[in-house]
Amino acid sequence: MVTITEQDSIPHSSRQRAGIKEWAGLAVLALPTALLGLDVTILYLALPALAADLQPSSTQALWIMDAYGFMIAGFLITMGTLGDRIGRRRLLMIGAVAFGITSVIAAYSTSAAMLIAARALLGIAGATLMPSTLALISNMFGDVRQRALAIGVWATMFALGMALGPVVGGVLLERFWWGSAFLVAVPVVTVLLIASPILLPEYRASRSGPLDFTSVLLSLAAILPAVYGVKEIAKAGLEPISLLALGLGGVMAVAFVRRQKRLADPLLDMRLFGSRTFSAALIVLLVGLVGVSGVMLLVTQYLQLVAGLTPLAAGLWMGPPALMMVLAGIVAPLIARRIRPGYVVGAALTLSTLGYWLLATVEVNASGVGMAIAGFSLVYLGLGTIAALGTDLVVGAAPSEKAGSASAMSEMVQELGVALGVALLGSLATFVYRAQVSAMMAEGEIAQAADIVEESLWATVSAGVSLPEGVLLEAQQAFTAGLNVTATVGGIAILALAVVSIVSLRHVAAIGDEVQEHSAEKGESCSL
Length: 528
Hints:
The chain is mostly helical. It has helices at residues 20-41, 43-54, 58-86, 88-107, 112-140, 144-175, 180-183, 185-199, 213-236, 240-262, 276-306, 311-317, 319-335, 341-360, 368-397, 403-440, 450-455, 457-463, 471-505, 517-525; strands spanning 3-4, 202-203.
């Protein structure tokens, strides 16, 4: 067994270039990375079939979608620190076993509550995989240019997994039941467990203090009540319990930050946020993924519930956006060798706003599918760009001895962005849908099916022929209105983010330039 300790103390110039074994190891690490991205989005197309079987409420449906991402975000920093202590490869393998077992449990869930619990456990298991993969890449690739390329492949694989989720889900649902979407993890985990001891080195930090469980509890106590509060406000407005939850989360967040500042070996070194590049790149990743994940859920539902496509056809229609994401992930770093990354990100996000505008104009007609796919392809152009460049900016802005913490933060905000997008924009779309339905109540025969129609569009579609004539079309129009409003809000946010990217990251030099303006900032703001 090869064990690496404190490799960051070795100068970059003296590290050996990676060989065939390291690149083969990268291929192994790409498997769980793609799987984690896949698991974020594979349920988007499975949701209607899942809803018809388990009959979740609209709130339960949202929890099924985003419990996974929230739990990953909550445990990422903890698991990254734990990997430093017990070994990153060991934690990767333990997490892989847990992920495989929990995926089987999720596949055979018999109730919405059971599936929500399984998704939460999947999130905890996933939190062991994400920091381990990126940290091991940093250990395996000592040469700066090789490591940059490897991190680019890592980021592209996660983005590719997210993009292919609907495609894989559609293919599986064409032949199998919705639980098959979870069983994809089993063969991936099997290959990972066989290949990891052969191709991956072990890494343990030799000078780390004990894991601070108080910090772990404070981090969870900050995130989970805040999440609950946001969901309850989206569902029922400003109720006392939701405000109390938000307040509790805020108090715990303050306590967490204060404790990290006092600890000699914190879970999260707050001094990292003194870097302008680090903070700005995190904001780009967070807000960018909020917009993408929110509209993705609605687009995939539009294709099935409004356009009437089968899961397979809907999944295949999501192919062009996936291709656009991969193309952006490959081309953006090449362009960033000549043009500053902030400008590249800003330009890509500006193009994305055109995609949001197209989604804001989609209607219930024959041209709706083409308009939705064209718009979402432009949205994914921006996602591919920030996925490829954002992680490199975050990790590169931190001192080498804090690369693990920086990696965990990058992954955490991406997962949190996906979950927040589903929760916030999904709730906005639900609010608009129900407002539209309420306005229709006094007209026609929709009042006879008010309870079904008000619940959700998938409940309306499931009721099918039992509904009065015309009710389904009105419900589809209400859903499309929700998509339009959500895309409008998302587009405004992404346009503002494009400006923030250009202004906040304009000091970062093009990749590979000998003069790296941000290195001076990194040394001054994050010096330890």
